[in-house]
Amino acid sequence: MLKQTLTAVAVAALLAACASTKPADSTNANAGANAGNGGAVAGGTAGQQIDPLKDPNNVLSKRSVFFGFDSSAVSNEYKPVVQAHAEYLKQNSNRKVQIQGNTDARGSREYNLALGQRRSEAVKQMMRVIGVPEAQLEAVSFGKEKPRATGNTDADFAANRRADVVYDGE
């Protein structure tokens, strides 16, 4: 009888010890794990949001509008990107962007600076039509001075024919 009583007391003590484990320990572990991402919980739990500009699943993470050879027309493929950034800027009137026009390496420096400016102005104008105030937008050209790809293939040239949307503070 004594053996059964001691076993029952031991089981009860073990169960009591399990029930008194502090849930704060798991909370502290999560706080440390989230410190590296600004406190945002991966997966976006209730009450916490991931920055849409940095969320790879959000169209706002796309920052480049690509152009055809010798063109400054925004193609239908990239209009949703421009639209999304315009809507974001309208909702966040404290944010500003610099639209940086770029070209491939072919052509003179002067020609490419002008083409890069036309590309950045095309994106800017589209945002203006959508309703973004002028004060939030700046269009500049880097011409061929800031290539994304340094080779001489068609793919390299295509990667450099772009306008990049760069937010203030980035």
Automatic annotation (TrEMBL):
Gene3D superfamilies: OmpA-like domain. It is a lipid-anchor. One of its GO terms (cellular component) is cell outer membrane. GO terms for biological process: cell division. Residues 54-170 form the OmpA-like domain. It holds the Pfam family OmpA. Residues 1-24 form the signal peptide. It is found in: Cell outer membrane. Coiled coil: none annotated. PROSITE patterns: OMPA_2, PROKAR_LIPOPROTEIN. Keywords: Cell cycle, Cell division, Cell outer membrane, Lipoprotein, Membrane, Palmitate, Signal. Part of the Tol-Pal system, which plays a role in outer membrane invagination during cell division and is important for maintaining outer membrane integrity. The Tol-Pal system is composed of five core proteins: the inner membrane proteins TolA, TolQ and TolR, the periplasmic protein TolB and the outer membrane protein Pal. They form a network linking the inner and outer membranes and the peptidoglycan layer. Belongs to the Pal lipoprotein family. HAMAP family: Pal. This is Peptidoglycan-associated lipoprotein. The gene is pal.
